[in-house]
Amino acid sequence: MTGRGRVASGQPTIADVARHAGVAVSTVSYVLSGKRAISEVTRNRVLASIRLLGYHPNAGARALASRRANVIALVLPLRSGIQVPVVMQFATAVVTSARSHDHDVLLLTSDEGPEGLRRIAAGALVDGVLVMDVELHDVRVPLLRELRRPSVLIGLPADTGGLTCVDLDFHRAGQVCVEHLAGLGHRRVALLGAPAAVYDRGTGFAHRTRAGVVEAAARHGVEAVTLPCEESAADVRRRVDVLFARHPDISGLVVQNEAAVGPVQAALAASGRRVPHDVSVVAVCPDQFAEHASPRLTSVPVPAEEIGRQAVALLMRKLGDEPAPEVTLLEPRLTVRDSTATAYHGPVAGPDGTTTG
């Protein structure tokens, strides 16, 4: 049917809506985009036709009508030392939040580097970019400052000037972990951090956590050892064995490696050290890792959902030409569970089985 009837077959087009409403195609575009004032009567008639015909503007039509693709890009870190389940938490949060703003998400991988950003910015594929796995001296940062597409970084480079960044305050997270252990009387602690590859790349969250641990330990008179920690159970067992062979009086561990949480607890048990009676353990990890550990871990959670939501909200502000803060840091929150207790300063088992203390 034509005129004011229903479309006989196929998906309705913007021209079908215009004919049904008795207006020009440009008028329908203006109603959809809001780029020009349309009388309330005409607007309501167009919207009624859209509803009746079941018209859904595709990405191309939206782009023509509003000069927007209604798509944002998310650059994911899929490389060594990165925990894919945690990355997917961030991705899910971004996609869910973007849909609430009527945007879809295009996923890229960080191995494309600056060239990947240039490629998507050169066309009309996306309106803006979210970048994860930010390094202290990230090679993508100079380009992000120059791109005509707005961007938000999930993470902090060393120089945040001219950027918009959001993240957990990992420096403060390291401090909070040590402050908790110091408050329980622990005087020698160790950080088992991210894999060595993460530190070697200069990834911001790992270096900031380590700096927070060192700073808080010095301030509270606590001796701190910091070591990278790989992910496999065998590597973790070797790392724990070497750590306590060299420092048998360590009574507190901070773990910042989700994949190593279970193996660390298993390695401690295998060496005869009980948690928390002999060694207290604090983790910087998502809540589900901490809750499912045995014993349940005292932890500072990584709030992936909140960070993803705020990153999208900041990007939407920039797309709307609204001011956005340069840096947004979420305050870390320590949840005390079963893995930490008052330090025991009795005899300590050495590597040869003898005791000291």
Q: Helix coverage percent of residues?
A: 40-55%
Computed over alpha carbons, the radius of gyration is 27 Å
Q: State the helix count.
A: 14
Average pLDDT metric: 87
Structural class: alpha/beta
CATH fold name of the largest domain, please?
A: Rossmann fold
Strand order, sheet with most strands: 2-1-3-4-5-11
Q: Poorly predicted ranges (pLDDT <50, ≥5 residues)? A: 1-5, 348-357
Element string (H = helix, E = strand):
HHHHEHEHEHEEHEHHEHEHEHEHEEE
Q: What is the CATH H-level superfamily of the largest domain?
A: Response regulator
Distance between the termini: 92 Å
Beta-strand content? 15-25%
CATH class of the largest domain: Alpha Beta
Overall shape: it is: elongated
- How many individual domains? 3
Biggest sheet: strands, sense, closure? 6 strands, parallel
CATH architecture of the largest domain: 3-Layer(aba) Sandwich
Set out the fold topology.
Layout: H1 14-21, H2 25-33, H3 40-53, H4 59-66, E1 71-76, H5 84-100, E2 104-109, H6 113-122, E3 128-131, H7 141-146, E4 151-154, E5 165-168, H8 170-183, E6 188-192, H9 196-200, H10 204-219, E7 223-227, H11 233-246, E8 252-255, H12 261-270, E9 280-284, H13 287-292, E10 298-300, H14 304-319, E11 327-330, E12 348-349, E13 355-356
Parallel strand pairs: 1-2, 1-3, 3-4, 4-5, 5-11, 6-7, 6-8, 8-9, 9-10
Antiparallel strand pairs: 12-13
